[in-house]
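Submission checklist for the structure archive. All mandatory fields must be present; incomplete records are returned to the submitter.

[x] Identifier: Serine aminopeptidase S33 domain-containing protein
[x] Organism: Pontibacillus marinus BH030004 = DSM 16465
[x] Residue count: 326
[x] Sequence attached
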Amino acid sequence: MSQKMDQILKKVSTWDQPIDFQNPIAPNDAIKQYLTYYGLDVPHTYFHMGVLYANETKIMVQMHSPEQPRGTVLLLHGYFDHAGLLHTIIEYLTKHQYRVIVYDLQGHGLSGGEKASVQKFNHYGQTLQKVIDLMTDQLPPPYHAIGHSTGGAIIINYILKKKKHPFTTVITAAPLIRSKHWKLTKAGYYLLSPFVNGIFRKFRANSSNKDYLNFVKQDPLQHKRVPFQWYEALIRWNKSIQEQGRSYDPISVIQGDLDDTVDWKYNLEFLREKFPKADIHHMPKARHHLFNEREEIKEKVFSLVFKKLNGEAMLHDTNQSKGHHG
């Protein structure tokens, strides 16, 4: 199955139609198999898929839209992840009448770029800006942003650097500011980077959902190495983000107290300082991958996400799109 799926994914990655948020596509056989394999064949939705280019890199973008969406959620995944690993939250959001835009970060999933790497964290932000520009040009408000881990860091970076942003609601789940064992990670990077260009990845138990963990280990879109270029970009970004001023925009943060991937205690202190209006929610017994946790934890996370989106979106009923398919 893995070899067959590799061939299917290669075919899907050659898809070159520009992303169009107003007109759904008719998926070919390869795309249909991709959607089925990753659980993205969401019922009762219109499917959009296409590419855009950022920093001369091909970015694969998709959107899942219910018949009468109440708003748009821009969803960003974490490091080593891709759109296919967010199928649970995508299905939940579309079921509750939100259209969902999700794209594979460069070096991830079906997007181009060096595997699991980026030269500068600002490149992530530039890609985000391009997606936002298309979204706001083609779709009506309200707009919401949800980012997991590195995806959360990208959104946080964007908000701190922009005086204005289009999002009614911003939610970060286990956001990355510093990774776990940060000082040790930095020391290892400075010690080893003159001699090697990366290290082998260790698959962590970042969820209590064993089925999810087993799936990730077999996932053909996973990468086995962590390039030191990505560590360098993270270290530089971490230094620059300290120098950014505060934002008084409200954001919500959901954090598991068994997270062994990020230095969450430091991260929450940092976010309280940078976002005085941050709304922080601790999720007991939850690990890092909050959207792929075991069922009882995942239900609590999704319920919280819905309350945040719905509570804010109700203020914008007059802007809702009536019968808009894209």
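[x] Structure attached
Curator remark: The longest helix spans residues 295-313. The longest strand covers residues 46-54.
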